[in-house]
Amino acid sequence: xxxxxxxxxxxxxxxxxxxxxxxxxxxxxxxxxxxxxxxxxxxxxxxxxxxxxxxxxxxxxxxxxxxxxxxxxxxxxxxxxxxxxxxxxxxxxxxxxxxxxxxxxxxxxxxxxxxxxxxxxxxxxxxxxxxxxxxxxxxxxxxxxxxxxxxxxxxxxxxxxxxxxxxxxxxxxxxxxxxxxxxxxxxxxxxxxxxxxxxxxxxxxxxxxxxxxxxxxxxxxxxxxxxxxxxxxxxxxxxxxxxxxxxxxxxxxxxxxxxxxxxxxxxxxxxxxxxxxxxxxxxxxxxxxxxxxxxxxxxxxxxxxxxxxxxxxxxxxxxxxxxxxxxxxxxxxxxxxxxxxxxxxxxxxxxxxxxxxxxxxxxxxxxxxxxxxxxxxxxxxxxxxxxxxxxxxxxxxxxxxxxx
Length: 404
Ligand code: C6P
What we know:
It contains 14 helices and 14 strands.
């Protein structure tokens, strides 16, 4: 059996999405900006995809949803353009964000700091989230933008977006949320929150990679990041990626239809897996279950390094991660675990398991059994590395060697 439990990194494209995209590669391949029938033939499907995204997120007709190449582009766009609009051409110079954002936010903030922006990286509480009152206390009259993720890719914890949005509105500050890990997992109603910009990526909800979007409330001004041929009303130039946009529309429709029921089923499997792993000694999970996306577990197994665990799981045909996929090559400690105050040794033990609506009960059974055996194996290796080392006073004390 093969089990994919890294759905926060990316998801399988739903076969129904592939089917919907298919005609737009070799049959309906015209450029939608062309005036001939090859170009206009894709217009109905594009309109449908746009409607599907608006409906799924309950966006209003006054708002804009602009397709991009991914959430990284959407995040860069908002941060860099707010900087241009309000910092370079205005009198504000301050951005508020959190320590636990995705690198596409954090690296952009660092880039903007080099250009003269002041950035506050808010600390998280022991649940790995930023509290709304913390955001309030760091907003000044120089603050141009607050950017806080809707849900964490590492822990699944859902941030208090409604409260933070209300504070930003009251203070007259723009509010952006990276909702990549929320959309398709929990209901996201854009008319129920005060949020100016929202980023999303289709491949996190069983759509294709390489297409995302930015929601812009009330179609407000935002200098384009991509200048060129005035596509999408000049907001984002570049020939429209018709098959992928059509695929994103279908994917978001499928992911949000009956979302409560789908979430309940995923949560049931997630909780069963989590409960079983927690039966092992010295294990803990980051964040309350009730306030987490239904598919995610970030678990720490004392004495078992994350990379060793991944290797063992991979041998058993189980795909998991130690955290964000883009940070997993560098063997660094899990940044969210460090942010909640775990020491470096503990932060190296984090394992992220993320399910999807395609995860089956049989896969969970198999994972539970393999996981428990793996922990036994790895703890045995780690204790066999234990050596006898004389302490200063000459007395012998056990210490552990690490198996990097
Ligand atoms: N997180 C993870 O393993 P792109 O690559 O642009 O489609 O999405 C980037 C992105 C932005 N924001 C959040 C919250 C994300 O989780 C991601 C992607 C993956 O956690 C890959 S690093």
